[in-house]
Amino acid sequence: MDLYAGSLYEAKTLADEQGRPFRAPHHTVGACALVGEVALAAGGILYLEEVERFDAQALRVALGVVRSMECMKHDHTPLVIVEPSGVLGAIICAGFGLRNLDTLRR
User: Fold this and answer.
1) Residue 10 · residue 16 · CB < 8 Å
2) CATH number for the domain including 95?
């Protein structure tokens, strides 16, 4: 699974350009609700702003669902875009192989 770095504006613009669903849950959401957001973002973009403020367990569960969708070659796997702020966010994203959002536009 790849994570892409980008701002809220960039992510929303990309969703609009491609006609994809867009979801941006608040960092206080729990694991079950975050999995629901993954489902609602199917075929679209799941944007996680300030990724380091999300509950670690909720992130593990939700990103595990995204990985499972990819492994099953699910046609509607959401694209996950994050906006890390600070060192902790960068460390979290480094573990998932953070990429620049501009690579999607090429």
Assistant:
1) no
2) 3.40.50.300
Comparing C-alpha atoms, which of 87, 62, 58, 57 is closest to residue 3?
A: 62
Three-state secondary structure call for residue 76: coil
Number of domains in the chain: 1
The band of 32, judged by pLDDT with boundaries at 50, 70 and 90, is: very high
Task: For residue 38, give its domain range.
Answer: 3-104
Q: Which residues contact 60 (CB under 8 A, 6 or more apart)?
A: none
**Is residue 11 within 8 Å of residue 45, measured between CB atoms?**
yes
Check whether 90 has a pLDDT greater than 90. Answer: no
